[in-house]
Design brief:
With 487 residues, this protein is of the alpha+beta class. The protein has 3 domains: 2-180, Beta-Lactamase (2-Layer Sandwich), CATH 3.30.450; 226-335, Helix Hairpins (Orthogonal Bundle), CATH 1.10.287; 337-479, Heat Shock Protein 90 (2-Layer Sandwich), CATH 3.30.565. The chain is 55% helix and 15% strand. The strands form 2 sheets. The chain has a 5-stranded antiparallel β-sheet. A hairpin with a 2-residue loop joins strand 9 and strand 10 (471-479). Helix 8 runs antiparallel to helix 9 (308-330), helix 10 packs parallel to helix 11 and helix 11 runs antiparallel to helix 13. It is rod-shaped and about 175 Å long.
Length: 487
């Protein structure tokens, strides 16, 4: 039993179904055999009773006149009939006892001589004589002596309420035995046929019954530290108890998955917030020497040598330092970088800046721009977001790939949608994309997306990533206020 307790339901249910089918077939076969023997016995007793009553009624007059020969002729008549009708089912002998329970006549006179005591001939008659029928009972008495091969039927011979004698009809049990063997053989064959037919069906339905439980068990075993996706869990849908259990399990898994995602978001947010605080301190330290260098350039331009080459070099340095200052300002969450509003000219400048990278890889660069009436977003920060997104997209795209830039307004947001046909980003890496020094290619430094995240956070916006095979999309939403005047 301990061994069966540890057996899988995959085998336990079919095994139990098999045992149930076998036991049921055995019980049915045994019932049929028993019923067949009982029917045979009942039919024999009923036929013997009818014949015995006729013989008993016919013997009344001969016994009243003590006509032995007539009585003998009457009890021998059934044996002459049996020669033509089922001799194997007839009586073995018929015996008539007188009122003193002595032999009056018998079909086997050499075995039961006249006026002999049957007890002296066969001791079992002691038991038989004790079972002599009551004259008040309308049914015959059936006696089966202990360890006897015969069944005896006792019918009283009476006239005017007086017992003249007893008719004893002895039937062998051999027909019962042969009938038993015949029925048993048929029952065994029927049982085997039933088992052959029902056993495969039982095995099939047993496996069908076990399948939902096995699926649920496998799903529970897959609950590891890394929770499976809801689509990876396959459970049978139904309204029975197992189906409801599967639905409850899926609901629990969805809740755990949502909790896991929320925990990852909290961890990522805390990590980015800590990094943001660190970079804010660094940015403050960088701004001080930047301000000094810009002041020095401005002073030199006003009071220094005014030759063309020097002024051109100083202008390049000044623009570079201003770009560094504005980029560093984007890293300061509390900083409010002031610049002119973002407009279509900024988009054209961005196209010009990334054109060399696009041509170098023969990329099909397309876009759709609709920013009419937008005035509230600072151009420096928005330009930085778009440039970083496009540079990342170009780096991730193979030669002759595709990069698309869509900029439009959506309700109260400016939506920047950059898509590329580059490599697919696994789901597990998306949560870490906006951390510093996290790069998806060997040439990047891993700061572009981090800068984008800092700028978007500063502008109270949102950034999301969707990646499937052959397409990766970065979508930035920046809240804005519309101007009633169009360009």
């Amino acid at each position: 039993m301990l061994y069966l307790k540890n057996v899988s339901l995959k085998y336990k249910i079919p095994l139990r179904v098999t045992v149930l089918v076998s036991v049921t077939a055995f019980v049915l076969a045994s019932t049929l055999v028993y019923r067949g023997i009982e029917d045979l016995r009942s039919n024999l007793i009923a036929n013997a009773d009818r014949m015995g009553r006729v013989i008993a009624d016919t013997l009344v007059q001969p016994m009243l006149h003590d006509d032995v020969w007539r009585s003998l002729e009457i009890i021998n008549t059934p044996f002459r009939i049996q020669e033509y009708q089922a001799p194997d089912r007839g009586a073995e002998y018929i015996l008539i006892l007188n009122a003193a329970n002595k032999v009056y006549v018998a079909t086997q006179p050499e075995r039961f001589p006249m006026l002999s005591d049957p007890v002296d001939i066969e001791p079992r008659y002691t038991e038989i004589l004790k079972a002599l029928p009551d004259l008040r009972k309308p049914v015959p008495t059936v006696v089966e002596p202990y360890q006897s091969d015969n069944l005896l039927l006792l019918i009283p011979i009476q006239s005017d309420g007086m017992r003249l004698g007893t008719l004893v009809m002895s039937y062998p049990k051999s027909p019962f035995t042969s009938r038993f063997y015949s029925l048993t053989q048929g029952a065994i064959l029927t049982t085997l046929l039933v088992i052959i037919v029902l056993l495969p069906l039982g095995m099939y339905w047993g496996r069908k019954m076990a399948a939902p439980l096995l699926q649920l068990s496998d799903a529970m075993r897959n609950i590891t530290p890394n929770l499976p996706e809801p689509g990876e869990i396959i459970l049978e849908e139904s309204n029975d108890e197992i189906g409801q259990l599967g639905k409850a399990f899926k609901g629990m898994l969805a809740g755990l998955k949502e909790k896991e995602q929320l925990q990852q978001q909290v961890i990522s947010s805390n990590r980015l917030a800590a990094i943001g605080r660190l970079t804010a301190g660094i940015a403050h330290e960088i701004n001080n020497p930047l301000g000094g260098m810009l002041n020095a350039i401005s002073t030199y331009k006003r009071h220094g040598t005014q030759d063309a080459l020097t002024l051109k070099t100083l202008s390049i340095l000044e623009r570079g330092l201003i770009q560094i200052k504005e980029t560093v300002a984007a890293l300061l969450v509390e900083a409010k970088s002031k610049s002119r509003p973002f407009d279509r000219n900024d988009v054209e400048d961005i196209r010009t800046l990334i054109q060399p990278d696009v041509k170098a890889k023969h990329i099909n660069f397309t876009g759709e721009i609709d920013i009419a009436g937008i005035r509230s977003l600072p151009s420096t920060l928005v330009r930085q977001v778009i440039i970083n997104l496009l540079l990342n997209a170009v780096q991730a795209t193979q030669e002759h790939g595709q990069v698309r830039l869509d900029i439009h307004s959506d309700n109260d947001n400016l939506v920047i949608d950059v898509a590329n046909s580059g490599s697919h980003i696994p789901q597990g890496k998306i949560a870490y994309l906006f951390e510093p020094f996290t790069s998806l290619n060997e040439t990047g430094r891993g700061l572009g997306l981090w800068v984008i995240y800092q700028i978007v956070q500063q502008l109270d916006g949102q950034v999301s990533v969707q990646s499937v095979p052959d397409e990766t999309r970065f979508v930035v939403q920046l809240p804005l206020q519309r101007d009633n005047h169009h360009e």
